[in-house]
UniProtKB/TrEMBL annotation, chain A:
CDD domains: TM_PBP2. The keyword RNA-binding does not apply. This is L-proline glycine betaine ABC transport system permease protein ProW. Pfam families: BPD_transp_1. It comes from uncultured Rubrobacteraceae bacterium. The chain crosses the membrane at residues 51-72, 79-105, 111-131, 163-189, 209-229. Belongs to the binding-protein-dependent transport system permease family. GO terms for cellular component: plasma membrane. GO terms for biological process: glycine betaine transport; transmembrane transport. PANTHER family: GLYCINE BETAINE/L-PROLINE TRANSPORT SYSTEM PERMEASE PROTEIN PROW, OSMOPROTECTANT IMPORT PERMEASE PROTEIN OSMW. InterPro entries: ABC_transp_perm/SBD, MetI-like, MetI-like_sf.
TrEMBL record, chain B:
The chain crosses the membrane at residues 17-42, 54-76, 82-102, 147-167, 179-199. Keywords: Membrane, Transmembrane, Transmembrane helix, Transport. The lineage of its organism: Bacteria, Bacillati, Actinomycetota, Rubrobacteria, Rubrobacterales. Pfam families: BPD_transp_1 (PF00528). Residues 17-200 form the ABC transmembrane type-1 domain. It comes from uncultured Rubrobacteraceae bacterium. Coiled coil: none annotated. The keyword Ribonucleoprotein does not apply. It is found in: Cell membrane; Membrane. This is ABC transporter, permease protein (Cluster 13, osmolytes). Belongs to the binding-protein-dependent transport system permease family. It comes from the Bacteria. One of its GO terms (biological process) is transmembrane transport.
Length: 246, 218, 325
């Protein structure tokens, strides 16, 4: 924490220099539909898209890290403990505090610390589910594959990962929902996205703005949750087509 | 470092630290009571349980800042309203785990208990709750850690707590004030996580720990 | 005594009953086996006795008293209950598991503890070694013993057992069955025993009730009569083509009139008097002989009690019923 010679705090107040038009201050009802109509494509849609972009990038990076680490930990059991201890530590740090720590160690306000934080939060969930997923592959199945002459690499790609996929996707579901929620807070340090509407709305006491931001973020999180539930089912038809009602 | 310690020594810091703890403890406690009541209420019905789990899942998906912010127009600013929003937040993880935990108790164990003449209430308190205890505690732990973290955001709706310092630091352009708040809240979160982890192990009946160990060995 | 009087059960939303107009009587101190293919309503019938399931029609009397004359929970505390997979409570010690019903009945702690020890002894588990263990620390067979002990805890006159030995390997099952029959000689409970395995039924039952799909009583009789005089084609096929052999397994060599073992007995196969006729038959045929020398344990040479011939076994398999030893 010695790197804070030049704390990047001078740029932090950028949020409060509202970028939004300010003539709406005299409220027209609780939700100012007129304002919303006029500024929807200009302010709301970009924030929404940016939010999705931020989360997608973070998740892709997190997955690229977690998959190899998870496969490694499933092979070499001794790694699982340290991996979950370290990522579990990140996961426990409240996100608002995490952003401050990232700034304190020298990152400047913007998308980078936001994405780093989002990745750090996803690691525990994803690694855990990769390992659980690989563990759930019955040893008989792997044995049969070996008996049919598949190489270790072929077994991993053709047998283990496909069978583990539903569990991995279940992890992605939790990660996505977590990331969407934390990305809202990341707006505070310049991550952009729907949180910008919320913080801006709060500072200027303009409910239309923060309600819009909060409602959209909520809808986004719930839709992502439902989407991944569906995907999870699609990916494991065998689990839902066993005999009878079960 | 000194500048962080200076913040810790401010008179209002202790007050806000206590407010943060108060918010977290009360919200988790209220959340626990509500979640357990609902879980016990839906325990007997498949349909009600499924509905409860789905509501819980949706509740978990809602970003914490959004819950706080959406409460703003309804409840306004202040401690009570932050507490209300955090309580809502605390319910879902406990609810999901409690419903799932109570229902995943092996059907044959319940059948044996009924067959020996235990009443519904005796089965719930003597069989289902102890067997589900570890899962319920895991839910409480998730809830508590999440509430401690989200209580930092209470500052945005005038609820006070350690989030005040993070925001103050931003507003005054002094990262050390933010850092003091962040360190304190991270400390609280880790204490909560570790503390509940210990509680969870304590509340796992010995027979269940043995059963888990045996299942893992297979 | 348990009496079924015109008992039927139709589940809500189903057209056909799972149990149809069931009437029969189970005598005191007898093991009555309910057996049949899956979907025959055997478990449903058993569960109606302690009202885990309520009948739609008819009544069930226990010692002349309608089983609806008290609350379901009170009734169940007076009836032993043992099931497959045991349903032992994983979070309670073995002694606490056994003490469940006595505890509900308000026995004092010392009495519950001594009863648990007594029962552990009875089912062949050393109390000192097992009372403070948890179910997860026991093998499948040991868990089933505890399941039986738990059902016996409050010394109920009636016991319901639903495939109580179903979840163990055949060798363990055979041993548990023998031990239980041995225990039953002393305790003389009235037992309703559900199984899908006719061999287990023949072995365990004083009476067998064979049910067929739709919950209809196909035959209710002693194992011998069911084997010798199956009431219908259904019973005959359910009992199996080897019912003659099964019948032989009901009789011990020592209970049969033997022929004098004259001549040179040395070449003859040795038949233990404790064996069943089925075992004897197998041994004699396997040795290529037409008779075997019957001996008792510990006197494999000399001291012979006589000989048993293929002819006599054949006669028994067709002839009159030999009372069970």
């Amino acid at each position: 924490m010695d790197s804070a010679d030049d704390p990047p705090t001078s740029t932090l107040a950028f949020l409060f220099q509202a970028e939004f038009a300010s003539e709406e201050q005299q409220q027209k009802g609780f939700i100012d539909w007129e304002w919303l109509g006029e500024n929807f494509t200009e302010d709301v849609v970009p924030a929404f898209l940016q939010h999705i972009y931020l989360c997608a990038v973070a998740l892709a990076i997190a997955l690229a890290i977690s998959l190899p680490l998870g496969i490694l930990a499933a092979r070499y059991r001794g790694l699982y403990g340290p991996f979950t201890a370290i990522t579990g530590f990140f996961y426990t740090i409240p996100s608002f505090a995490m952003f401050i720590f990232l700034l304190a160690i020298g990152f400047s306000v913007g998308v980078t610390p936001a994405i780093i934080a989002l990745v750090l939060y996803s690691l525990l969930i994803l690694i855990r589910n990769v390992v659980t997923g690989l563990d759930s592959v019955p040893p008989e199945t792997k044995d049969a594959a070996r008996g049919m002459g598949l190489t270790d690499r072929q077994i991993l790609w053709r047998v283990e990962l496909p069978l583990a996929l539903p569990v991995i996707v279940a992890g992605m579901r939790i990660a996505v929902v977590t990331v969407i929620g934390i990305a809202v807070i990341a707006s505070y340090i310049g991550g952009g996205g729907l949180g910008t509407l919320i913080f801006s709305g709060i500072t200027r006491n303009f409910p239309t703005l923060y309600v819009t931001g909060a409602v959209l973020a909520t809808l986004l999180a719930i839709s992502a949750d439902l989407l991944f539930v569906r995907t999870e089912r699609l990916l494991s038809p065998w689990a839902h087509r066993t005999r009878g009602a079960r | 470092m000194d500048r962080i310690l200076d913040v810790f020594q401010r008179r209002d810091f202790i007050a806000n630290f206590i407010i943060h703890i108060e918010l977290s403890v009360l919200a988790t406690l209220f959340g626990l009571v509500i979640a357990m009541l609902v879980a016990i209420l839906v325990n007997r019905s498949d349909t009600a349980s499924t509905i409860a789990i789905n509501i819980g899942n949706i509740g978990r998906a809602v970003p914490s800042l959004c819950i706080l912010v959406l409460m703003l127009p309804i409840a306004g600013l202040g401690f009570d309203n932050a507490l209300f929003a955090l309580t809502l937040l605390a319910i879902s993880p406990i609810l999901i785990n409690a419903v799932v935990g109570l229902r995943q108790v092996n059907a044959q164990i319940i059948d044996a208990a009924r067959g020996m003449g235990l009443s519904g209430r005796q089965i719930l308190s003597g069989i289902q709750l102890p067997i589900a205890a570890p899962i319920i505690f895991a839910g409480i732990r998730t809830s508590a850690v999440q509430v401690v973290a989200s209580a930092t955001l209470a500052t945005f709706i005038g609820g006070g707590g350690l989030g005040d310092y993070i925001v103050e630091g931003f507003q005054r352009g002094d990262i050390y004030i933010s850092l003091a708040g962040a360190l304190a809240v991270a400390f609280l979160a880790i204490i909560t996580e570790v503390g509940f982890g210990t509680l969870q192990r304590t509340f796992t009946p010995k027979g269940l720990r043995l059963a888990q160990a045996r299942a893992r060995a297979k | 005594m348990i009496e079924f009087k015109g008992v039927s059960k139709t589940y809500p939303g189903m057209d056909t009953p799972v149990v149809r107009d069931l009437s029969f009587t189970i005598e005191d101190g007898e093991i009555c086996v309910l057996v049949g293919p899956s979907g025959c309503g055997k478990t449903t019938s058993m569960r109606m006795i302690n009202r885990l399931i309520e009948p739609t029609e008819g009544e069930i009397l226990i010692d002349g008293q309608d089983n609806t004359s008290m609350s379901g929970t009170q009734l169940r505390r007076k009836i032993g209950y043992a099931i497959q997979q045991t349903g032992l409570f994983p979070h309670r010690t073995i002694a606490d598991n056994i003490g469940t019903v006595p505890g509900l009945l308000g026995w004092d702690k010392a009495r519950i503890a001594s009863r648990a020890d007594e029962l552990l002894d009875l089912v062949g588990l050393a109390p000192d070694q097992y009372r403070d263990r948890y179910p997860a620390e026991l093998s499948g067979g040991q868990q089933q013993r505890v399941g039986v002990a738990r059902a016996l805890a409050a010394d109920p006159p009636v016991m319901l057992m639903d495939e109580p030995f179903g979840a163990v390997d055949p060798i363990t099952r055979d041993r548990l069955q023998n031990e239980f029959l041995h225990i039953q000689e002393d305790i003389k409970k009235t037992i309703v025993f559900v199984t899908h395995d006719i061999d287990e039924g023949i072995k365990m039952g004083d009476k067998i009730a064979i049910l067929k799909e739709g919950g209809i009583l196909a035959q209710y009789d002693t194992p011998e009569n069911i084997l010798v005089k199956p009431a219908s084609e259904f019973v005959q096929s359910f009992v199996g083509g080897d019912r003659v052999l099964k019948r032989l397994s009901l009789t011990r060599v020592g209970d049969v009139d033997l022929e004098p073992a004259n001549g040179n007995g040395n070449a003859l196969p040795r038949i233990n008097a404790e064996w069943t006729l089925r075992d004897a038959l197998s041994e004699i045929i396997g040795a290529g002989a037409d008779r075997g020398l019957v001996v008792t344990d510990g006197e494999s040479n000399g001291g012979s009690r006589g000989a048993i011939t293929l002819d006599s076994i054949r006669k028994i398999s067709h002839g009159a019923v030999v009372p069970r030893g």
